[in-house]
Please model this.
Amino acid sequence: MIQQLAIVGVGLLGGSVAKAARAGGLARRIIGVGRDAERLRPAVDDGTLDAAVTDLAAGVREADFVLLAAPVLAIEGLLERVWRAAPDGALITDVGSTKRNIVRAAECLAASRPLAFVGSHPLAGSEQAGYRVARPDLFRGATVIVTPTEGTELSALKTTTEFWEALGARVTTLDPETHDRTVAAISHLPHLIACALVDGALRLEPAALELAARGFRDTTRIAAGDPDMWTEIFLANRDALTASVEAFRRALDDLRRVIDAGGVEALRAELARIKAARERLS
Amino acid sequence: MIQQLAIVGVGLLGGSVAKAARAGGLARRIIGVGRDAERLRPAVDDGTLDAAVTDLAAGVREADFVLLAAPVLAIEGLLERVWRAAPDGALITDVGSTKRNIVRAAECLAASRPLAFVGSHPLAGSEQAGYRVARPDLFRGATVIVTPTEGTELSALKTTTEFWEALGARVTTLDPETHDRTVAAISHLPHLIACALVDGALRLEPAALELAARGFRDTTRIAAGDPDMWTEIFLANRDALTASVEAFRRALDDLRRVIDAGGVEALRAELARIKAARERLS
Model:
């Protein structure tokens, strides 16, 4: 059992971890850390947090488990401050959508003071944001990728894995580089493409958007995601995203070549191959 | 009230029209026409059809309202045969996903024998197909685009519009060219893009697909659509699709330029603009 769980950033993800940890009795005390006391109050009022503070150092000073649930570019900056304030023996993890930059920053800090850090990325976001949409079952059945390196202690990896599993998640382990390439392909690229689809339709047939049927709505739902969050993700994972866009472009070009050639059988074979791959997902 | 409704092709769309017309008492008799008697039997057995025939001419001979619910390339061929067999005064419509080619074919036929044709396109497809997924409420709240031309008689347009409205649909009127450009942007392009997303991920990170979260699943759901149907649609609407792909590409290139430039404010402004456009949809 965690004695004191400090959650830095009490929005959708941080708030849902707090609610799930409270519901599951995973921590004796849960402290929320945020920049705005006003916005932390609902989580104290509803009993999810035992206390809320705006001073990061005070919030993590007695924590044995620290979760950084801020936007991805902010986490790098927070790490340094947490590293100075957290007690010996504390385990730190995060929810950042990219992992290479964060894990590398933690390894630099660990060279001067050996605290345990294990990167985490729950695939449980939403196009909605904020504590008001947090819910205790957000991680039930969701995948959480944890990203240990050669320097990660096995006990820290085990504790982190068990933490997410206790919230109902399935945990998968990838190294930080593979993680970033993977989420570029399955998360960041689809988001970018959804944005381009909306924008392309706006440019070509603005009136068409009003007729958009279920296919268009589903395909572009994620284009309504939080611009702040996605700005950070796209910038943090620029290299892997570029590689994904190139693979996508080649796939699109190949499909267009088959369409332009006009052969019914060839096109049907391509679409059947892709349909089969998509159906293995669900 | 329709005296005899002939539905050529009793799959998801044709079957749903039959069920809805039966439930709403829109037609005295409903005849199904298909190539395979075996596959028509369930719709007779469950009382949706009064009769099912495999002979097209026999099926439409006494019909005052004919609905062509075959795949889009097949409809052009069917039109000619229906034109020869249908009685004077019959009104013909269809459910084809592209309209220029079909409306043009009908206008050629009308030059020699003046039957009424009004093109229709219900935006109510699904990635599933066949009579077993047909349902009487498929058109409830759905949009149906009807595509009259200057030569269309107002009474035929009115009857067609009222028919779809009686099934619960909202009817929008576009000329056939605007229709084809519109559906290229909001339906055919998203489908092509979803296919390219699946294929791009397969090429780059085949293992990544297993981790695909909700964003990827939603964005690529339509890639599991019927390959036969989409082969015909892509080939029938090739020109408008190409224009849509080009608009999409320009939008994607512009977004990538903003990401590569690395400016937080510029990227956030772009994503916020697109989010606002997407949110006007739902």
Summary: The mean pLDDT of chain B is 93. The longest helix of chain B spans residues 176-204.
